Amino acid sequence: MNRFGSLLMLLAAFASCKSASDQSAAGFKEDTIPVKLLTLSQESNGQQVKTSGIFTTDNEAVLSFKNGGVLSKVYVKEGDAVRTGQLLAVLNPTEIAASVRQAKLSEEKAQRDFQRAQALFRDSVATLEQLQNAETALRIAQEQLRAANYNQNQTEIRAASAGYVLKRFVNDGQVVGPGSPVIQLNRTGGSDWQLKVGVSDQQWATIAVGDSATISSDVLGRNVSALVYKKSEGIDPASGVFTIMLKLVPGNYDKKIGAGMFAQATIYTKERASHWQIPYDAILDGDAGKAFVFVTNDGKTAKQVEVEIDAIQQNRVSVSKGLEDARSLIISGSAYLTNGSPISVVK
Hints:
The protein is α+β, with helices and mostly antiparallel strands and 347 residues long. It folds into four domains: 33-44 and 273-345, conserved putative lor/sdh protein from methanococcus maripaludis s2 fold, CATH 2.40.420; 50-59 and 189-272, Efflux pump adaptor protein, beta barrel domain (Elongation Factor Tu (Ef-tu), domain 3, Beta Barrel); 61-91 and 156-187, CATH 2.40.50.100; 94-154, Helix Hairpins. It has four helices and 21 strands. It has helices at 2-28, 94-122, 128-153, 201-206, and strands at 33-39, 43-57, 60-63, 69-74, 81-82, 87-91, 156-158, 163-168, 175-176, 183-186, 193-199, 212-216, 224-231, 242-248, 262-279, 284-287, 290-296, 303-313, 316-321, 328-332, 343-345. The strands form three sheets. The chain has a six-stranded antiparallel barrel with strand order 2-11-14-13-12-15. The protein has a four-stranded antiparallel beta sheet with strand order 3-10-8-5, with no helix packed on it. The chain has a four-stranded antiparallel beta sheet with strand order 7-6-4-9, with no helix packed on it. Helix 2 packs antiparallel against helix 3. The protein starts with a helix and ends with a strand.
């Protein structure tokens, strides 16, 4: 009886240990979440930079007077067509005319002093130094008269070439300083139109001179080909953006364009940027160009990572950063995941 009793106790103990082991294993087992995966691979394409700007030309000029004074008359208004050599504005000549007369009188006196010094030198009354000083004074007076005559010629503003008046900054009777803007003139040859656009620092870095572009506006009525003509080397402090000049391809448009007209542009960069194309449904908590997605490298554990969104196109999202170390993207079941959740891959 003792041996039989001992056997029963041993069997009971074994069953008890097995039950405890099963319960322990059941207690530590987590349910895996079924997910679908997308193998990640980078694509490399030229970027498209969309922007807008206004039409202008390389021949714009802001005209001003060399010397300040009272503005006597402005003969043109904004929008007027002008011809080469046409008088555009004049200063009141009273002050500059007085300066010319004063310079003329000084030159005449210096001429008399020199002639007198010559006569005295011939009579051995004046020294050579006195003669030379009189000659120098005469030459100085002649140069002053030449400068006064030049300044008198600068009391007028004339058109250097045919064109249009874009802006008139002043009115008759105003006092203007040297170099103050008076008239902005644009010479239009019909084939030198450019679109001045602004871009961000990142866009500026990818754009190169010679990149192709298309320009569209209500005036043109269709897309017009253009090329990146110039890039600014610094930011515009007024607008806070970098300036890009797009030159329209000659002969590719037949509509009349005016300076200051608005247009949209798409620039096609030659520099190729690597990115990932992923489904829109894989994105979580997107905000200000950033979002979160779940990835996995071992097919067993989900990992949450932050990505930078470059563009959204229909049901696809272009990601430029954040997936460098990821092998597979979780595209189904993301709503039930947290960072580190166990997963099971389904086809």
